[in-house]
Amino acid sequence: MTASALAQVLLTRPHMSLVPSCRRVRTSKGAIVTGTILITGAAGRMGRTLLHHWRDRMPLGLDRAGADRTVDLTSGPDACVWAFAGAETVVHLAADPDPASSYESGGYGNTLETLTVVGACLQAGVRRLIFASSVWADAPAWRLADRMTWYAASKLAGEALVQAWADQTGNPAVCLRPGFFDPGAGRADGFNEALRVDVPSLCRHFDEALELFPVR
Question: Are 26 and 3 in contact (CB under 8 A)?
Fold first, then answer.
């Protein structure tokens, strides 16, 4: 399968797994060294989970507070690029995770953070990008809403930006579409419970994304 064909592959997953839709956005021919992993949104639920899961790899966390590198991603790539220095793989989790978030936070804020990450990855020479999108990026298929939400729009925009980064650099990128993730919560309402992602599934699919194209 060619790199261009690979960009169109859509892998279906069981509904209780991490990614009901896991898109391999792009890869160049060859391998990518995982090297230093930088996780944005490291202070959040997914970020803390992956930092612990990958502790033997000694990943670096990035967030506004409570992380190895503290930075506000809404300040733009020029102000944030220092925090991406030395990273070979960036796992971009940072976002307002509320599907009902406002334009300011969900639409503008989430998209601006992804623009910053993509720009900083370009400037810092990052070689691999993994983006946590959401099942809300495919809301009609999952009957999540009858209208586009600001949150869903931000995730679709994020996927497009990540794919553009991959296409323009020739570096591999992966977009994952996780459902509801809150390992500390009890049983959720029926809507979120049907989309729940457990810790083993989360870690397994991010492992797959990280090791999709092993070093040659």
Answer: yes
